[in-house]
Write a structure and sequence with these properties.
This protein has 396 residues and is of the alpha+beta class. It is built from eight helices and twelve strands. The protein has two domains: 233 residues, f41 fragment of flagellin, N-terminal domain (Up-down Bundle), CATH 1.20.1330.10; 91 residues, Sandwich (Immunoglobulin-like).
């Protein structure tokens, strides 16, 4: 086989160029610290690294969403804590107003304190989250979700909560409607009310004696005073019951269909009370308004004042219980956020490890390869220089 001088030179130059490319590629790998800098370097490894990078990016984005939820829930828990403290203050004011030695003026002073507490609670209900929204905005509100109208406080948002836009269902708002306006009335099962109160008798909050016998029907209790004898009659949804013309004893428990409540004091003829099923309509603002209005009303007897205090404490406790329930839910959410954050951190770490395994460079091996390639390139370059001198023109 005959080889021309030009062909030999071309083959040598091509070999030098190939070695130079390999040396340049290895040098690029050493500089970047990556074995795969282009998809053509290793298509399979490049695909693995791309999938790992996508997973890492998703994890980082999800972590930002988790941070937003954590911030909102932390602020929300603080707001609920502030509201709970104010409700405790309201409870103390009501207890003080029940002092038998208090005058009407002193009770009006407590009513004024309750109205100030209501204003503070209203401000908390409309507290901003620092990012253009509101903590109790429900499913989103571009304006304060609660509006104080002559008819009472109205919720202008949408009930529920807004979740972060990620794979994890984490809230960034609290359900303001449920927190502030939807506590259970009465004792949570039924509610005792005053229909007519001319005497000094008052009814307590009651309790459930036998849950299995509850009917869910409304009951009315009316008093009759004749010849110095006081009796009462209980109707169930307007129909007679076994408790008809029963002799009244102050403070004695009245039990019917699993319900138990007591009436204390001296009722007047025609005084009436009712017991109705509880509903999720207890409005903390309406509660404070109602209590303050009752305390501002003067010239009432001891039974009427006691009734106001009894129902006030019941309703404040119901509202406070709802707040504490919302705080517990917020705490559970924060615990769940911790778990999600740990899971995302592990996922991100796994993605980084996978990406590193796919594209990172073994520096020791790469340095050895680079030195070997550099030695080979230098030797090839010197060989080509010697071969290039093997020409007739060198002897002429």
């Amino acid at each position: 086989m005959r080889l021309s001088t030009a062909n030999t030179y071309d083959a040598a130059i091509e070999q030098l160029q190939r070695r130079q490319r390999e040396l340049s590629d290895t040098q690029l790998q050493l500089t970047s610290g990556k074995r795969v800098n282009r998809a053509s370097d290793d298509p399979t490894a490049a695909a693995r690294a791309e999938r790992a990078l996508a997973l890492e990016v998703r994890s980082v984005a999800s972590q930002r969403a988790v941070d937003a939820s954590r911030n909102a829930m932390t602020l929300g828990e603080g707001a609920i804590a502030d509201a709970s403290e104010l409700l405790q203050q309201a409870r103390e004011a009501v207890v003080a107003a029940g002092n038998g030695s208090y005058s009407d003026a002193e009770r009006r002073s407590q009513a004024l304190a309750l109205r100030e507490i209501r204003k503070q609670l209203f401000d908390i209900a409309n507290r901003a989250d620092g990012s253009g929204g509101y903590l109790f905005g429900g499913q989103g509100a571009g304006q304060p979700p609660f509006v104080d109208t002559p008819a009472g406080v109205q919720f202008r948002g949408a009930g529920g909560q807004t979740d972060v836009a990620s794979g994890e269902s984490l809230p960034v708002t609290l359900d303001g409607l449920a927190a502030w306006l939807q506590a259970r009335t009465g004792n949570g099962v039924f509610e005792t009310r005053v229909t007519t109160q001319n005497g000094s008798a008052w009814i307590d909050a009651g309790s459930v004696g036998d849950p299995s016998t509850l009917t869910g029907d409304p009951y009315t209790l009316s008093f009759s005073v004749s010849g110095g004898v006081t009796t009462y009659t209980v109707l169930r949804d307007g129909n007679p019951t076994a408790l008809t013309n029963v002799a009244y004893q102050s403070g004695q428990a009245i039990e019917i269909d699993g319900l138990s409540f007591a009436i204390t004091g001296v009722p007047a003829d025609g005084d009436a009370f009712e017991v109705v099923p509880s509903t999720s309509t207890l409005d903390v603002f309406a509660v404070l308004d109602r209590i303050a209005t009752a305390l501002e009303t003067g010239l009432r007897n001891g039974g009427q004042i006691t009734q106001t205090v009894t129902h006030a404490l019941r309703d404040i406790d119901g509202s406070l219980g709802r707040m504490l329930q919302q705080r517990a839910l917020t705490g559970e959410t924060l615990n769940r956020i911790d778990g999600v954050e740990n899971r995302l951190a592990q996922l991100e770490l796994g993605a980084r490890v996978e990406r590193s395994a796919a594209e990172d460079l073994d520096m020791v091996e790469a340095i050895a390869t680079f030195q070997s390639q550099q030695t080979g390139f230098d030797a090839a370059l010197k060989s080509y220089a010697l071969v290039q001198k093997l020409s007739l023109f060198q002897y002429v």
